[in-house]
Write a structure and sequence with these properties.
Blueprint lengths: L10 E4 L16 E4 L4 E2 L7 E2 L10 H10 L34 E12 L6 E6 L8 E4 L3 E9 L9 E3 L23 E7 L4 E6 L11 E7 L9 E10 L7 H9 L29 H4 L6 E4 L8 E5 L4 E8 L6 E5 L4 E6 L2 E8 L1 E4 L4 E7 L5 E8 L7 E7 L37 E9 L6 E3 L10 E3 L4 E8 L5 E5 L4 E3 L2 E3 L1 E4 L4 E8 L5 E6 L2 H5 L3 E6 L1
Parallel strand pairs: 5-8, 7-12, 13-16, 15-23, 24-27, 26-34
Antiparallel strand pairs: 1-2, 3-4, 5-6, 8-10, 9-11, 11-12, 13-14, 16-21, 17-20, 17-22, 18-19, 18-21, 22-23, 24-25, 27-32, 28-31, 28-33, 29-30, 33-34
Length: 545
């Protein structure tokens, strides 16, 4: 018999029943079930506060039984949560914004469909029948409502996370933590204020659905940009699979016998931007075998043999909004024949800095200005530094260009470093002695596909307690052979002299220190934005107390 003990445990891992659909649910689809979810998705098509069944703590044997029998056998364990006080309330929980308060609205539909990245159709899941999903573009200081309908097949659940936007907790889109997942056939309205402006994106936060192409760009335009330009365009980068995604444990065992990802690995080394240095950018050998079998890389949904083209006129000044929406790829990006002037990091303004290339991990964004002063046909190239697939590419074509030959970047010039970035806004709130300190290690687990923070695998991991108003300092040390792009929901943090929401922690004892102010109450996920590392457990929750 399943019991209702151990009230201190806040999340459990529930494996769904296998599904026999064309998309193969072996991607894991592990649900992180909060003991008392506060916000549920229902047919009323808006956020609302609801009661829900309490899921008890389970032993491993009981979990396996629950996976086989479903959750109905434990539904009798209903009780109120004790997380927020004796009366079951949590005074720090923010309330959702009412849908009727929105200034503007958009609609997204998650559905099965197909797209043609390289001349032949691939079946997958997508938003609005396209890859990437429809661009959402709004002005800053807009209250936005996005109505999301789940038309995915075979009972699949879903959510949307607004990556980088410090929304209120109920709109953050993490299943089991900030909301119940959106059930098949149901709708859910996310309501949030588009502040601050910047380059963001949206994606599913359920299982490996991001790898199925459930993602798209989100642009919040500034009222008064600190740089001048004629127009802006989105450069949306991501990797893609020709087959349904599988958990890391499966493709690792198929490719290399399940060898571990600890300190013994080779390949890329400290290939990230953390710590001020880049390290090696090699991507072959053992490290490539720790990546999914990607078919290639996309720019705005187009593969390199049929690339996206950007038409420009001589003298134009273009703001390129580069978004790394990949599942597991770090790119080095350059524009042939042109220098870039980086103006924003993760949407936040920085003093303009010249660079010939930059490296960014999954979840990071850079805005870069390019002056069209060298007529011809040039290549925008994104090289996967942690894989051996062909680069992603787009074409920058001047009006009237006669030559059809496309000239690529050489990558022999100045490469952007984190230390080059200087925020345009005050960092005073992030200075001084922190109120809370966390010294966390990132590592591979003993099982293939297991990834840990301080030796614990989410969801079986202790929350990190903080209080509203705290100055929080987090030191991350990477004891694995793979870099980790670490992303914090609901907040920006200081790295060096810049504000970001995602930072790459280099491999092989690379270290990064970040500071943030606890100014957005709720329970916030902090995790590696490699989709497989997150699914493997490299996550924690910052819990306001």
């Amino acid at each position: 018999m399943l019991g209702c003990g151990n009230k201190a445990q806040k999340y459990i891992r529930v494996q769904p029943l296998p599904r026999s659909d064309d998309f193969d649910s072996r991607e894991g689809h592990v649900r992180y079930v909060r003991r008392s979810p506060r916000f549920v998705a229902g047919s009323t098509n808006h956020l609302y506060v609801g009661a829900s069944t309490m899921i008890p703590s389970l032993t491993r044997r009981e979990l396996l039984t629950a996976s086989t029998l479903g959750l109905a056998s434990i539904a009798g364990c209903t009780e109120t949560s004790n997380l927020g006080g004796s009366d079951g309330s949590d005074e720090s929980d923010p309330t959702p914004l009412p849908p009727e308060s929105a200034d503007e609205s958009r609609s997204l539909r998650a559905e099965a469909g197909s797209y043609e990245p390289a001349g032949h159709p691939l079946d997958t899941w997508l938003y609005g029948g396209q890859v990437p999903g429809p661009e959402i573009r709004v002005d800053e200081n807009t209250r936005l409502r996005v109505d999301v309908t789940n038309d995915l097949p075979d009972g699949a659940e879903t959510t949307i996370h607004w990556h980088g936007v410090p929304v209120r907790n109920p709109a953050d889109g993490v299943p089991g933590l900030t909301q119940d997942p959106i059930a098949a056939g149901e709708s859910f309205s996310y309501v949030f204020d588009t502040t601050p402006p910047g380059t963001y994106f949206y994606h599913s936060h359920v299982g490996l659905q991001l790898e199925r192409q459930l993602l798209g760009p989100l642009v919040v335009e500034e009222e008064s940009p600190h740089v001048d330009y004629d127009r802006d365009v989105v450069v949306f980068l991501n990797d893609y699979l020709s087959t349904p995604p599988k958990p890391e444990s499966e493709w690792r065992s198929e490719s290399d016998g399940g060898s571990g990802g600890g300190m013994g690995g080779g390949g890329m080394g400290g290939g990230g931007m953390g710590g001020g240095g880049m390290g090696s950018t090699g991507g072959s050998g053992m490290m490539a075998s720790w990546r999914p079998p990607y078919a290639g890389h996309l720019v705005n949904g187009r593969a390199s043999d049929s690339p996206t083209e950007f038409a420009v006129s001589e003298g134009e000044r273009i703001r390129f909004r580069f978004i790394n929406a990949s599942g597991a790829t770090t790119y080095r990006v350059g524009v042939g024949g042109h220098a870039m002037e980086v103006s924003h990091a993760d949407g936040r303004p920085v003093d303009p800095v010249d660079a010939d290339s930059f490296v960014f991990g999954a979840g990071e964004r850079y805005d870069a200005l390019v002056t069209a002063d060298r007529p011809g046909t040039w290549e925008i190239r994104a090289v996967p530094i942690d894989g051996d697939e062909a680069p992603a590419r787009a074409v920058l074509r001047y009006e009237g260009a006669e030559s059809q030959s496309v000239r690529a970047p050489t990558f022999d010039g100045r490469r952007l470093e984190y230390g080059d970035l200087r925020a345009r806004e005050s960092l005073d709130a992030f200075g001084g002695t922190p109120d809370r300190r966390f010294d966390l290690t990132l590592s591979a687990g003993s099982e293939p596909g297991a990834w840990l923070i301080d030796g614990q695998r989410f969801p079986d991991a202790d929350p990190l307690g903080i209080s509203e108003g705290d100055h929080v300092r987090v030191r991350l040390t990477n004891r694995s052979a793979m870099l980790h792009p670490m992303h914090l929901h609901g907040h920006f943090f200081r790295v060096g002299d810049a504000l970001k929401d995602t930072v790459v922690v280099p491999a092989h004892m690379g270290s990064v220190t970040l500071d943030f102010v606890a100014d957005n109450p709720g329970d916030w996920l902090f995790h590696c934005h490699n989709a497989y590392h997150l699914e493997g457990g490299m996550a924690r929750v910052f819990e306001y107390r």
